[in-house]
Amino acid sequence: MAVAIVGGVVAFECLFLAIGVGILVHQSRFRGRSLAATGTLVAVRRVHPRASCGSSGPVFLPTVRFVTAQGQVVEAEARSGTNLPQGRVGGPVNLRYDPADPRKFTTTRNARAAGCVAIGFTAIGGFAVLLTVSVLIAIALH
After folding, report:
1. Can you give the residue ranges of every domain in the chain?
2. Of 46, 89, 93, which is closest to residue 74 (Cα–Cα)?
């Protein structure tokens, strides 16, 4: 019984670790293939995510207009947002976009927020796994 409980705890801790690492890998790959641009904040849509998303407050999704390196004008809404508005409508927005599909972009603020979440998940999951393994080793040695 105790082994099953410890196994469940370790699995839960590893899930946190995997989520954090997954976000970091995704961001790194996107950054490697994306290009930087400065756009204009066209609009901000306030949405209320389901409680299952872990957010109790609204999320602000920016719509930006920017010009790609090839001269294509793109206006699109971000696929993710933050709990703070991106700035004032009409103001500049720094972003990175996928040259293969410029509608896939992230603002610098969104990328920074996702990076903080990823580091938090990775740190908490990694620390918890190390702590649990250390306790198990200490118990096994006594």
Report:
1. 2-141
2. 93
